[in-house]
């Protein structure tokens, strides 16, 4: 059975790792629907305990949980949103603590980076959602899972002994 709000809130291109649940009597009643999925954090806003934020590492798990919400036996409403980590402020630098899954890889020698080369280099760390060109020597690599991006960032930097590659995290919503 579809709920009336579903068609308004389910927009595939707008899915995020954070799902906001409203209309809860208590936070425990939703737990069985995400307990088997890796979660970065669950929190409520102190003033309003019937609103719950669930932050997933993996976008696909957030989407799966969102789908599960269509079968809830109570009237909770799921909404994709951004978490306190994912809201870039002017002074905020995107870093490994922001639960982002996109890294920018730059060839400092100004040589062209191919999509295939970047995919091969990064796919060993986790499933890639997209590789996008920024400039001929730069590629955005977006993983489904923020932990994969973090591992790629660390391992590629470790292996980059000739220092010709530069990696940095970028906000997922800026790509």
From TrEMBL:
Q: Which GO terms describe its molecular function?
A: RNA binding
Can you tell which superkingdom this protein's organism belongs to? Eukaryota
Q: Which Gene3D superfamilies match?
A: 3.30.70.330
Pfam families noted in UniProt: RRM_1
Instruction: List residues of the RRM domain.
Output: 101-174
Where exactly are the transmembrane stretches of this chain? none
| Keyword entries, A-Z | RNA-binding
Q: Does the keyword Iron apply?
A: no
Q: InterPro entries of this UniProt entry?
A: Nucleotide-bd_a/b_plait_sf, RBD_domain_sf, RRM_dom
The record, for SUPFAM superfamilies, names:
RNA-binding domain, RBD
Q: PROSITE patterns under this entry?
A: RRM (PS50102)
What is this protein identified as?
RRM domain-containing protein
